[in-house]
Amino acid sequence: MSESKxxxxxxxxxxGLGIALPIVWENKRTEANGxxxxxxxxxxxxxxxxxxxxxxxxxxxxxxxxxxxTGTRDGTDYADLIRSHFRRGASCKFDGQVVRFSDxxxxxxRIEDGYYRVSCDVYWSARIYHF
Length: 131
What we know:
By secondary structure, this protein is an alpha+beta fold. The chain has two helices and seven strands; from the N terminus they run αβββαββββ.
């Protein structure tokens, strides 16, 4: 199924970031004692289209939990890393399924659960072929 290929392509791209922080994935037991990043791959709409393909989109949500009271530089550096790795027009592929990145957004940092939290979203889309 192509939805699983989309997810695999995105996870592979995320793991290729080379972030020095532990990644906490959805529904996986991970001990995060200290700074870490939580990653969620969220599907959006799935639209049936003509000409033998469907259209799917969604976003990847990155939540960086960093040391508080150390300034904003680390959060800005991680946001810049995400923005450059998932730049508009770039793509990734898994088993023939191509996923393209269309946009990036960052929300203001805030203190949460004893950490300085910086959240970034990467928007993606894919054509799912049914040939």
